[in-house]
Amino acid sequence: MSKSLFVAGTGTDVGKTYVAGLILKQLHEEGLRTAYFKAAMSGNCRDKNGTLLPGDSLHVKEVSGIPQPLESMCPYLYETAVSPHLASKMEGDPVVLENVLQCFDGLCETYDWVVAEGSGGIVCPLRYDHIKIGLEDFIRARRLNCLVVADAGLGTINAVVLTAEYMKARGISVRGIILNRYEHGNPLHEDNKWMCERMTGIGVVGTVSDGQANLDIPPETLRSLFKKNGEPR
């Protein structure tokens, strides 16, 4: 039975995609069949033929080395660099949850380890018109375990605690925290790590420094974050 993990962020540009790529790289180098998934992706560029290119997917594929076809990684692509709910209002093609779940389930049937990534922070809406869809709707529909990624600098404690408490209040399982752009020996970063653990009760399972090419997380610890698909919490 396949296993999956949702990578959530405390906000935009905290390093979710970077961390997701490193997670997949470690699993792939262990010889495991791995896949990446993102329900909706905004701020994408076009190639010379005018085709939208999934920027985050391209990064993950390059970093991790996974052979997964690019077109299977994200069902909803938008050019405008705004939340998916607004991008779809501007460009059309709003997110349909049933389609997202079908695409995700297809990957879980094909691959053994699937890493799903959110868009922006945990409350980022995927759709907000006569139909309202949030990241938590996807997470809860498949009862996914979650990993929270945060920037290690100023504001980390507040961002991590609010994100973790929001998710807990909605019955979402948060299995760990990763601090990105972490500087070993930096008193602020080290205190943020300590305080995040104490104030959330959730372990910081790893830190990632700028330019780090591999995760410094034991394989058994990384695998323990995942949950078998279809398994109750």
* Residue fraction in strands: 15-25%
Mean pLDDT over the residues: 96
SSE run: EHEEEEHEHHEEEHEHEHEHE
Measured distance between first and last alpha carbons:
15 Å
Give the uncertain stretches in residue-range form. Answer: none
- Molecular shape: globular
* SS elements, strand count: 13
Class based on secondary structure composition and strand pairing: alpha/beta
Largest sheet: 7 strands, mixed
Supply Rg.
Answer: 17 Å
Q: What share of the residues lie within helices? A: 25-40%
Alpha plus pi helix count: 8
Please provide a written account of the structure.
- The chain is an alpha/beta fold and 233 residues long.
- It has helices at residues 16-29, 55-64, 84-91, 97-110, 135-141, 156-169, 187-200, 219-224, and strands spanning 3-9, 34-38, 40-41, 45-46, 52-53, 76-77, 113-117, 125-128, 132-134, 145-151, 173-180, 204-208, 227-228.
- The strands form four sheets. Strands 1, 2, 7, 10, 11, 12 and 13 form a seven-stranded mixed sheet that branches.
- The longest helix has 14 residues, at 16-29.
- The protein is globular, with a radius of gyration of 17 Å.
- The protein starts with a strand and ends in a 5-residue tail after the last strand.
Task: Give a brief rundown of this model.
The chain is α/β, with parallel strands linked by helices and 233 residues long. It has helices at 16-29, 55-64, 84-91, 97-110, 135-141, 156-169, 187-200, 219-224, and strands at 3-9, 34-38, 40-41, 45-46, 52-53, 76-77, 113-117, 125-128, 132-134, 145-151, 173-180, 204-208, 227-228.
